[in-house]
Amino acid sequence: MDASPLKLIPISGYGGGRFQVPGGKKAGGFGLESVLIHRRIMLSSGFQIFRQGSAAVSQTIQAALQQAEAFLRVGKTAEVRQIAAWVAAKVGLGNPLEAVEAMRRAALLDPTSAEVALSHSRALAAAGLFDAAIAVLDDLIEAGHGNDAVVAWRGKLVSTPCFPGLQGAHAPERQVYMSAVVHMLGGTGLPVSILEVGTFMGASMVTWARAIEHFAGGIGEICCVDPWESADLSQYGEGMAADLQCGVAYRVFLNALAFVPEGIKVTERRGFSDQVLPSLAGRTFDIIYIDGCHLHPEVLHDLQACDTLLAEGGYLCGDDLEVQLHETDAAFVAAHARADFAQDPRSGEGFHPGVTLGVGTFLGPVSVYGGFWVVRKTKDGYRPVEMTGKGLLPYHWPQDFIDRAARAVREAGWLSEVL
Ligand SMILES: C[S@@+](CC[C@H](N)C(=O)[O-])C[C@H]1O[C@@H](n2cnc3c(N)ncnc32)[C@H](O)[C@@H]1O
After folding, report:
1. How far apart are CA 215 and CA 23, in angstroms?
2. In whole angstroms, what is the distance from residue 273 CA to residue 311 CA?
3. Looking at domain 26-159, which CATH architecture does it have?
4. Substitution candidate for ligand 1 out of 162, 195, 199 with most atoms within 8 A of CB
5. CA-proximal residue: ligand 1, atom 16 (nearest)
6. Which CATH number fits domain 173-418: 3.30.70, 3.40.50, 3.90.550, 3.20.20?
7. What is the per-residue pLDDT across 121-166, written as a single tens digit (0 to 9) for each?
């Protein structure tokens, strides 16, 4: 094979990348660099993982690897190392398993590089393959090529759950308000039971678990309902759909279970809520959190089914209520009921019409705190909830999200204390 079929040209200004393959310059109408920036989903150091769904970008990385393999065959090791490092800085394809494969190839090209091993490990973690992500680092350290960054990333992997895709990342303060609901429930001395419809990678599940540990005696159950791989992917963006479809979301959820305190039992109920919720008939929960399908009439059906499963005195709550039905144009909402997301013609705000319609139809106006909605069940029906008491910052989220949550909660001023 020709050792130089591709000409790599230097690029600058982003993430340490040093080469670009001509032809990979444009992807979906954007420059490669802007695609990379646009799809960068996790910004916190140590959790930095790139995703880009463009086939053109994927092909660019494949081409670079082929180029490096060709260089290796003719002994051009300096070029091989440069390309492996470039791939390490840029990797992250639409399908996370492709990123793993690309990094496996890059690591074979340069097995002593800490930079490449780190990217390989991050790609594995982004694909939910946590054991392998740790093993890659252990091998490097054992071979004497580890460095501080490798040790630090290993430390993070073993001490904190890693969520390569966080739902609700635009409003991390919602995690604090969720935990405050557990605090409001009060320490009754009895185990707390929570039903979560829509679990994805388990980030909200960990929020509930930590809240039970801090505010409710540490004993409880969280029942997680999600079809994971079988979910209707048409409602999701490319990255989330890929994470669900190829099993990443479920593997990350399994990994997150390792960070749930001992006294809390997590029950997995795999399936669509319309099938799973009726099978729970006969039992009740203290808190029910609805964050599954956001379309109408699915949200309405979830609310109806969950109503029968909620204990008196319990809290019914959910995510993504940016605009309430009584605040907007009901005809517009009805016309967009099967859109995941739309722009409210009155406020100009982005919102989830299916959530607005379902909640507005079943409950009417509810209490909303930064998009997190909540009501309390009484013998006389559902009542608003005043957000008071204590909340917990999401320490299982990356630091910049924790900082943003702390700032937002402080500015809103509803809670008396944030831990
Ligand atoms: C927004 S994500 C949940 C995020 C999660 N609660 C968190 O905050 O980390 C929505 C989840 O709902 C699941 N889902 C979609 N349709 C569903 C249905 N009909 N029943 C149950 N879960 C569903 C999807 O598979 C996806 O994992």
Report:
1. 56
2. 19
3. Alpha Horseshoe (1.25)
4. 199
5. 293
6. 3.40.50
7. 988 888 888 999 999 999 999 999 999 999 999 999 999 898 887 7
